[in-house]
From TrEMBL:
Keywords: DNA integration, DNA recombination, DNA-binding. GO terms for biological process: DNA integration; DNA recombination. Residues 201-384 form the Tyr recombinase domain. One of its GO terms (molecular function) is DNA binding. It comes from Candidatus Thiodiazotropha endoloripes. The keyword Protease does not apply. It holds the Pfam family Phage_integrase. InterPro entries: CB, DNA_brk_join_enz, Integrase-like_cat_sf, Integrase_catalytic, Integrase_DNA-bd_sf, Integrase_DNA_bind_dom, Integrase_recombinase_N, Phage_int_M. Belongs to the 'phage' integrase family. The keyword DNA-binding applies. This is Integrase. Residues 96-177 form the Core-binding (CB) domain. It comes from the Bacteria.
Length: 403
């Protein structure tokens, strides 16, 4: 005798679990606590097995019968319904695993990042996250599970890396929410769970007298002429080391006295304008006869088709006697920022020239020329100031007259 909706609804619990059979192996298991579960009893290769079909009333009698009929079709084809369900779940979990979602997020975001930044993010995930939670469904990853991963990184003293991983995981969770594969950002609940990062500043020389000595040392550099020109241009433009070594002649307009770095080369993926002082133009004119017919202003030693090595400028500074704790290629930026702020130049003009752009990429795309007239004046005044330090002039005699 088959079941009816009324019979299923009105069935009361007993002291022991009991079953109501519908036919074809389908039955309703009624427990003493009143819970009701649909089950399918079947045989596969002579062995009796059970398949859970849902909980009543979420799964109605009709739905349970449909699931039973689907399972029996699989049996008729020689397929075990239980194994088919496991395979389906594995596939579903694979698509929704943390690693699958993270790689999908990374693929969508990476066009907006520099190659080095993109690679660093994936390397951190592959080394410190995927081995432990990569295979887990992203919706099943709770804050304590994620914290265990972050604490593993923290335990080896890599506090900053742990924070960066936490930030990336939060973005991945938000992407999963947007794509309907998670309901919450588990990383958000861990705010404050990691100890703060002690900020490290790039070693830099900011004492005017010492800057003068550095500039004279650069002018007397006895190594590669290309390297010396790069060293000379670095303090005049204070771009990031990667932006300097990847400079291309097509980006530089000597007549307009401007170097326009395309968005894809910039950390924040927005165009960056570097006004060129007369001193910077002189450096570029010096090297142009040597490299002007090629792609890069500062080509590599082994191949002119590749840019200068990322270690070249730092290695040259070591050759000049400056240790890694005294001065780096990145330190020219700190040098300029510190002194220009002390001299009273407009803070926004300094920040714009350092390419510290807004996180809002849409807004930033319209603002790459912001404060440009002020920046043009500032870059020339800065170059003149450096000339004064090189010749031994008193630092305060070259500061800006702030109005």
């Amino acid at each position: 005798m088959t079941l009816t909706d009324t019979a299923v609804r009105n069935t009361k619990p007993k002291d022991k679990s009991h079953k109501l059979f519908d036919g074809g192996g389908l039955f309703l298991l009624v427990n003493p606590n009143g819970s009701k579960y649909w089950r399918l009893k079947y045989r596969f290769h002579g062995k009796e097995k059970l398949l859970a079909l849902g909980v009543y009333p979420d799964t109605t009698l009709k739905s349970a019968r449909d699931k039973r009929d689907g399972a029996r079709k699989l049996l008729a084809s020689g397929i075990d319904p239980s194994e088919a369900r496991k395979a389906e779940k594995a596939t579903r979990n694979s698509d929704n695993s943390f690693e699958a979602v993270a790689r999908e997020w990374w693929t969508e975001r990476t066009p907006n990042w520099s190659e080095s930044h993109s690679s660093r993010i994936m390397l951190r995930l592959e080394n410190d996250v995927f081995p432990w939670i990569g295979s887990k469904p992203i919706g099943d990853i709770t804050p304590p599970i994620l914290l265990t991963v972050l604490n593993r990184v923290k335990s080896r003293g890599a506090i900053e890396t742990a924070h960066r991983i936490h930030q990336s995981c939060s973005q991945i969770f938000r992407y999963a929410i947007a794509t309907h594969r998670a309901e919450r950002d588990s990383a958000a609940d861990l705010k404050g769970a990691l100890p703060p990062v002690k900020k490290k500043h790039h070693p830099s020389i900011t004492d005017p007298k010492q800057i003068g000595g550095l500039l004279r040392a650069i002018d007397g550099y006895q190594g590669s002429f290309v390297t010396r020109c790069a060293l000379q241009l670095a303090p005049l433009t204070f771009v990031r080391p990667g932006e300097l070594r990847h400079a291309e002649w097509t980006e530089i307009d000597l007549d307009k006295e401007e170097w326009r770095i395309p968005a894809e080369k910039m950390k924040m993926k927005t165009v960056h304008i570097v006004p060129l002082s007369t001193q910077a133009i002189a450096v570029l004119n010096d090297i142009k006869p040597l490299t002007g017919n090629g792609q890069y202003v500062f080509p590599g030693i082994r191949s002119p088709k590749r840019p200068m090595s990322e270690n070249t400028v730092n290695a040259a500074l070591r050759r000049l006697g400056y240790t890694k704790n005294e001065m780096t290629g990145h330190g020219f930026r700190s040098m300029a920022s510190t002194i220009l702020n002390e001299q009273g130049w407009h803070m926004d003009a300094i920040e714009r020239q350092l390419a510290h752009t807004e996180r809002d990429l849409v807004r930033a795309s319209y603002n790459y020329a912001q404060h440009l007239p002020e920046r043009v004046k500032m870059m020339q005044a800065w170059a003149d100031y450096l000339d004064g330090l090189r010749s031994g002039a008193k630092a305060n005699s070259l500061t800006r007259d702030v109005k």
